[in-house]
Amino acid sequence: MLNYYLIGAALLAALNLLTYVAYARDKAAARAGRRRTPENTLLLLGLLGGWPAALLAQRRLRHKSAKTSFQLRFWLTVAVNLGAFLFV
Length: 88
Hints:
Layout: H1 2-32, H2 39-61, H3 68-87
Helix pairs in contact: 1-2, 2-3
């Protein structure tokens, strides 16, 4: 049973790393005027469990933190994720 918890923790850590990198790449693309990561992709990564890294990236990189429409959808995905976690 412990192995399943370790695998789950490793997958969640990898997802959070991927999420942070996605936010960082989107921020760099925004600064350089290049093609951006779709907001729905960033939100999906958060919904799947990468929201802690998304929140960290928003704060540290100052990215997507002032856009109200994005923030509303982001916090909705956090609530859904936490609700699903508590339900299971």
